[in-house]
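Let's practice the habit of predicting before peeking. Look at the sequence and jot down your guess about where helices and strands might fall. Then scroll down.
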Amino acid sequence: MSTGAGQSTAISTGFGTALVALVTDAGGNPVSGVTVSFAAPGSGASAALSAASDVTDGSGLASVTATANATAGAYNVTASATGLSDVTFGLTNLDVVAPTVTLTTNATEVAPGEAFDVTATFSEPVTGFTMNDVVVNHGSVVGLAGSGAVYTITVRSSGSGNIGVSIAADVAQDVSGNGNEPSGGISVRNTTVEETSQIISQFMNTRATQLINNQPDLTGFLSGNGSSQGQGQFNLAVTRGQGNFDISTKPGSRVWTRLQGAVSHEGTSDSSYVFGAIGSHFAINKNLLLGAMLQFDYLDQDDGIANIKGKGWLIGPYFVTKFPNHDVFVEGRLLYGQSSNDVSPFGTYTDKVETERLLALLKVSGSMLYGKTTLIPKVQFTYTSDDQEAYRDSLGNLIPSQGVAWGQLEVGLDFETPLETRRGNGELLLFGGFSAIGSYKEDSGGVAATPSVVEGGRARAELGMSYQFSEQGVFLVETFYDGIGRSGYESYGLQVGLDLKF
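Done guessing? Here is the structure:
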């Protein structure tokens, strides 16, 4: 006879009732002094006993206590004594501990649409775990692999904020049917704001440098030299890696226009830029012109899947003056404008972005004749700024305001000298020049400054020849090298041009 059988308790805890064996004689009377041995299974679900044996007392009772081990399951503890039949105690160890789960990932930041893996490690094998059991903020689960205790979750970012990943409670069960406890959450930084700001900053830098380099030269309205002299003209120029076109009316006209364009390939980005200007002035006296101009431009820039298109305008006054009795000329302008831009940073959506712009230019040049050679010293400083307004993108991210400002100082000496020709009525001219250029850039607002290899000091050399074959046209060839003394930046090529007067 025995008591204590049929009990159950949680693993690693003690059973509530001792295991008691009763020894009696043939007449049913208790027998004392009998040694009773108790034995539990040596592996699997089992129990730790308080003693391996006990001696019956005056009531014929021998007992031990039992504590369940860490393995769940049912088993028997056996009580035996010499010459007597064995007695078994059926016991059950219950698994009531919920499995825990830990999430880990190697990802620290992701862009919109980018996928990354998260590893879910449970404390014990589980079943019933599916993709729908993963909670994701600002993203979605696109894949799940694994079994038992380890699973790999693939998450794709939506780009609308930092991505949070967690697993809810009771979505997976262990072998005993216990539901899991909730996991801790992990967070992966969303780079939408940073990447968008950098793409816009790069775009504004490109447009600012293009705007500076395409400013029309107005000194020729007084000096009679340079690109503003002579009759109206059509000019087409092709250079290595860049194409340009230039249309201008007769400079002596009260109203003048200019249209220029450029196509460039820099690194992984391709840009197309168009610049136009229209202006009008009147003469205060023979040494002073006052006028106003309207400039407009368009830039289309691709960099991988990113694309920005922007069109803008600037308007303001200008002047050109000459020092009396000296061949020294000064020109200046101050322009204000705005731009409207379509920004598609990841190729999936497009936002409208507005900017405000400012440009100021001051140039001093001269003209000195040495025999047949004309020397043209020049100093020019140009400043331009472009400020982007803050906006909320299509994903709900707040893109902060930012601005770029460029200043460029150019000091140079150009020359032109006629060459003799043996026949014909044409005129052959050799020209060239050398300029020292210093530029600087300032960033404001935004989340990160965008570096530019153009910033700093450099020099530029030019050499070319032109041939005026009649009163109607000029053919020219020019080569240049830009980036002298500037590590990491150079530009060189050949330009062929044709001017047609009308």
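How did you do? Residues 193-501 form a domain with the Lipocalin fold (CATH 2.40.128.130).
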